[in-house]
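queue> holo job accepted (pyridoxal-5'-phosphate)
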Amino acid sequence: MKHDFDQIISRKQTHSTKWLKFSNPEVIPMWIADMDFVCPPEILRALSERVNQGIFGYTDTPSSLTDIFIERVKENFDWTIDKDWIVWIPGGVVGLNIACKTVLAPGEIAMVPSPVYPPFTEAPENMERGFVKTHLNDYKGRLEFDMEAVKTLLTDDCKLFFLCNPQNPGGTVFNKEELNEIAEICKEKNIIVCSDEIHADLILEEGLEHIPFASLNKYSEENSITIMGPCKTFNLAGFPIAAAIIPNQELREDYERNSKGIVAHIDNMAFVASEAAYTDAQEWHSNLLEYLKSNRKILLERINKIEGLTLRGPEAGFLAWIDCSKTGIETPADFFIEEAKVGVHDGAFFGDKRYVRLNFGCPQSVLEEAISRIEKAFSQRK
Ligand SMILES: Cc1ncc(COP(=O)(O)O)c(C=O)c1O
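queue> job finished
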């Protein structure tokens, strides 16, 4: 492996949200979804060249970025997109909010699978719209839809279906059959699908592939908003940028109109970093996947040996959704943080307090130390 993911780098002095969260300095922060890895050297080089130029004025979207993005989507997901379909936005969460504003009229609601990354439920609330949750069942550690429940819960006022694929927090990579079923249900009920595919480049499970919802068929393409971006793949969360891919012209124009004057323009540096990422950082990306697979293997082997804890995935990403329901602990996240000094994300934040979410996008030595602490805390439990 060419790139070194073992380096331990202090992040507190950069006001890292992840590293400033816990007042107890002993706690290893493993919650919010960014990784403790230096981003690809090609990105660092491009950024420093741009800094050296020294002028940071208003900037057009580089057509070279759009071109390389289209090429990557074709190459990685076999989906041919047109440059006119892409609306560059400052981040995925912004994209979810504009989707609500655009698709839902007053009185209309969104369907949100749960557990899920909280901005999916916050977006309708921010736009003064409602939502209905459909529960994802934990089937042997894989979060899956209950399609019958989806059908029952979809009332006539539901006009937007929020999909998170790969799923956060569960890491599920939805397969063609599952996606087709969602597509059929949404077509029948005339519902637009907003598919957040921010984690699409991080498939870990051998044999699985990411299928963009919109690539299923022409109807899905014309009735969807797909959100993709470089922030999770290349560890660029501090540079908000994402692409909303909206093939339907009318929907796209509405989306752009709803962004106007409210949504900030995209940072000069975010453009530079994204273009360098998509153009030159393929080797770093494949090294990253190998590293994450190895971290996942260590986690799976050791976490499942701890009585009461269960982990099966994730199929994609660097977030482990650990089932603690058999431990009998009322608030497992508190136990991890206070007794093991491992700063996990409380499952309650995503909609299920019986789970914790642990970010394993960190050097292996840090992960091993965290697991050792978890093992010790559970073995000493009275
Ligand atoms: C599914 C999903 N969408 C969006 C985001 C955040 O995107 P951004 O930081 O670009 O707003 C995250 C971050 O964890 C995420 O997991």
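queue> The longest strand covers residues 158-164.
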